[in-house]
User: Fold Alcohol dehydrogenase from Zoogloea ramigera.
Amino acid sequence: MFRGILIEKDESGYRAAVKDIDEACLPDGNVTVRVSHSTLNYKDGLAITGKGPVVRKFPMVPGIDLAGVVEESTHPEYQPGDSVLLNGWGVGEGHWGGLAQKARLNGDWLIPLPAQFSPRQAMAIGTAGYTSMLCVLALERHGVKPADGEILVTGAAGGVGSVAIAVLAKLGYSVVAVTGRPQDEEYLKYLGATEVLDRAQFSAPGKPLGRERWAGAVDVVGSHVLANVCATTKYRGVVAACGLAAGMDFPATVAPFILRGVTLAGVDSVMCPRAERLLAWQRLASDLDVEKLEKISREVGLSEAIPLAASLLNGEVRGRIIVDVN
Ligand code: NDP
Assistant:
């Protein structure tokens, strides 16, 4: 038996609880991992609370991230004792995930734990942090350089936002943070933001074009915020869009794209090809100060993760949550 969060849905409703789970119930896979740490991402919040249609099979162990040690493997690249890491691939949605002491998976979804990080540090980064790096890679791929001007980060005090600020600042960019939590200004400046703006300036419907200010942006919010960010991005600037914290809609016009040559770069972490994942983790190892991770993250146990899921969706969690599953 092993302990884990189990989500069930039946006539009596949708519920998540910490349970003792029989190992015989683990799904098929060629690698069994003894999980040490997992995390709580926005998507895990949706899965645990049932507020979004994330879980595709029941019962489900949530957890889109995990770090641990291989216990059994018939995959050619992994041996018992190897330290591994997993982000996405539908784990915690359609295949049992990381918020449990054991996971059985397709070894192709794993990557070796980068030597620079402990399992706990890798989970302090988690999908949110790895997605931040995918956004930075998207800005770079489209030619954005520190000398081009300011980079705007929305949802700044959340998981993706916090890591994005730390990485961009270390790379030499001038970073402006947008937050609904002005009380977190000191935290955002510690991470590397040079200026902190109130989310209210971005969340109402705006004009098709505004004063050009941003050389680039990382947006986790979507909706009017994303539309206003695009409308105020400089000529040939780049907006990396990865989230929907304010909504799936995108009430914008084509004006920024056809008149200013702005690029809207979509970022997905779930099905991202392995080579880019490896690059993103390699870049996190070189471009993220691990001491900042301590300030960004805090650790909880499995049972605390359940009530925190609702707080996370309410935008009340600062930075990242590490879950020690043992
Ligand atoms: P968090 O909850 O940690 O952060 C989201 C932040 O967005 C909040 O902290 C808050 O920041 C801001 N926010 C929340 N609600 C609103 C709102 N109604 N209007 C404006 N801003 C709001 O989540 P994550 O950082 O883990 O994820 C952020 C988003 O990115 C989510 O939508 C998630 O689904 C998405 N995501 C997408 C991935 C992909 O592969 N494309 C991978 C990872 C995440 P503040 O208080 O500072 O304003």
